[in-house]
Amino acid sequence: MSRLYGWGASIVILGALFKIQHYPFAGLMLVIGMVTEAIVFFFSAFEPLHEEPDWSLVYPELAGIEGAEPRKYDGGSRAITQNVTISNTLDKLLEDANIGPELIGNLSKGLQNLSDNAAKMADLSNAAVVTNGYIQHVESASKSVVELSQSYKNAAEYLKHDLSLSQEYGNSLKSAVTSMNQLSETYQKTAQTAKESLDVSSQFNSSIKNVTTYTDKLGESYSKNAELLTKAVEALEGNVNSGKTYSEQLNKTANNLMALNAAYELQLQSSGTQSDSTEKLNKTVGALVDNINDSLTNTKQYKEEIEKLNANIRALNSVYGNMLSAMNFNVPR
Fold first, then answer.
1. The whole model's pTM is what?
2. 72 pairs with which residues across the strands?
3. How confident is the model over 22-35, as pLDDT tens digits?
C-alpha cells in the first residue's frame, strides 16, 4: 500500500505541476492525477484499521478520559471489540514465563543482596591483599627455615665427623637445639595460621562461587526478561511503524491538498481576471444594445415617414390619374 500511495501521490503532484505551470496537455495530466488520487483513496478503504492500544491498562490515571468504543469494520457487517492490546500481550508473556510479583520481589531482593555482597567484596579484596602479603612472608620464612635446616644438617654432619668438641660447644649445641625447637614450634604455629588462612580463603572462594552461581541464575532471569521485553518492544515498534506510515500518508495527503489549494488559487485569480473581462464585455454589449435600441427607434421613425411618403405618393398618383382621365375624356375623337 505504501508504494501505491507513493506512486499515486507522485502522479497527482505531476498533474498539479502541469496545471500550475500551464504546460502542454495540462488538462489531461490534471485529469490523470485526479483519477489516480481517486483510485488511491479507493484502495485505501481496504487498508486495515490502526489498532489503538488501551493505555489505561498501563497508566491507570488515564482511565475514564476517553470512552473506548468497539470498532466496526468488514463493511459494517460485524463489530469486533479489540480487547487484545500490547499490555495484555505483555501480561500474557509474563504469565507464560511464570514471572509474577513474587519472582520480581525475589529479583529485587537478589539485586539488593548482590549490591551488599559487592560492597563486602571490597573489604574481602583488602583482606586478600593482606593475605597475599602474609603468604609472601610465610614463603620467605619457609625459605629461611629450609636454609636453616640445611645449615643444621651441615652442622650435624660436622658434629658427626668432629667428636672432640668441648662441653661449651655441646651446651651451645643444646641451646641451638632448643632454639631450633622453638623455631619449629613457631613454624608449626605459622603453618597452622597459614592453614586457617587457607580455610578462610576456601570459604571465601566458596562464597564467590555461590555468588557467581546466583549471578548466573540472575543473568538467565535477566536474559528471559530481556527476550520478553524485546518481543514487547518489537510489537510496540510494529505499531509505531504503522503510526509512522499513517502519518506519512497524512503528510502526503496534506501536500496534495496544498498543491490543489495553489491550483485553486490560480483558478480563482484566472476567474477574477475573466470576470473583469466579462464585466467589460457586458458594458460594451450594453452600450451596443443601447445603440441598437436607439437605431430601432430611428428605424421606426424612418419607417413611419416612409409610409407617410408612400401614402402621399399614392394620393398624388391618384390625383394625377384623375387629371389624365379628365384630360383624355375631353379630347375630341
1. 0.21
2. 79
3. 999 999 999 999 99
